[in-house]
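re the bet — no i am not wrong, look at it urself. input seq straight from the record:
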Amino acid sequence: MSDFDKAAEGAKMDFAKDMSYGDYLGLDAILSSQHPLSDAHDEMLFIVQHQTSELWMRLAIHELQEARRVMLGGLKPAFKMLTRVARIFEQLNSAWDVLRTMTPSEYTAFRPSLGNSSGFQSHQYRLVEYLLGNRIGALMALHKHKPVAYGALNAELAQPSLYQVAIDVTCARMGMDPLAGAPSEGDWQASPAVQDMWQKVYQDPKAHWELYELAEKLVDLEDYFRRWRFNHVTTVERIIGFKRGTGGTSGVAYLRSMLEVELFPELWQVRGVL
């Protein structure tokens, strides 16, 4: 008996009537979903990079929605989910390293095939931002042609963001009146009242340990999210310089402006007053 036979002894080999690995994961559909529109070798890299990023964002949405739900009943179950989302963005960060192996000349060879398509149009990325609290309603117009995506974004806007729920839970546990965490759209200045609330938590971690841990989980998540944004800017500048984006944005200039947006501004501003 060969070494292979010994190692595989007892393994099921016939899946004509049973579910296999590929069946369970739907690999036929996934692996046949790459359709380059040019003969350029590097277009496959571009497609796979963005498809896998969308899969990771699918998981991030799943985790964030559940974290928000369970947070209302207890914080500890949500901590694992928030940590997982931070690690998802660590994976998304690593993906930029692969895309950066593509040179400007290689990208230029297939860029016309993209037409007006752009990551700016990703409804899942928008849903992640809406979940976390960065809610720019005007961007909904990008998704009107996709009823399912548009409906999911509308449904998200109809409920409090994950950060607002975190603020509500913190207020309730500290015996405080409810506070609004999300400022008016486009105005991302820290709320003094919310900042004061977090300051009380940070000044006495032992008395507010779970709330202290919640705050740090949120900061950790945004830390990885910010790295993802920064790596996005660097990758785009490295490959296309300061050309306009395929979706019509100003490209690098627009992405740089997004670096200034703080998802949880009070949690960052409070560090300067402790």
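see?? The radius of gyration is 22 Å. told u. also The CA atoms of residues 21 and 27 lie 8 Å apart. so pay up
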